[in-house]
């Protein structure tokens, strides 16, 4: 399963959309969801999330735009690319 994150940024005072960017392809979407604390979200591909400050370090490597939460407000959403529905998650095995 390949996923992209859509990052949108807005002026803090006017909420005007400045621009948006799609991430590079992300092969392991589950690890990104877990790192963001969104692993339990049921409508992950149908929602938009206000970006939390601690998410910056997690998602910055996937984007060219330098994320500046002190200057701009951000929202992210997720786009699945591939056959729908995605295959069921496999249980994690202990090693």
Automatic annotation (TrEMBL):
Protein name: Cloacin immunity family protein
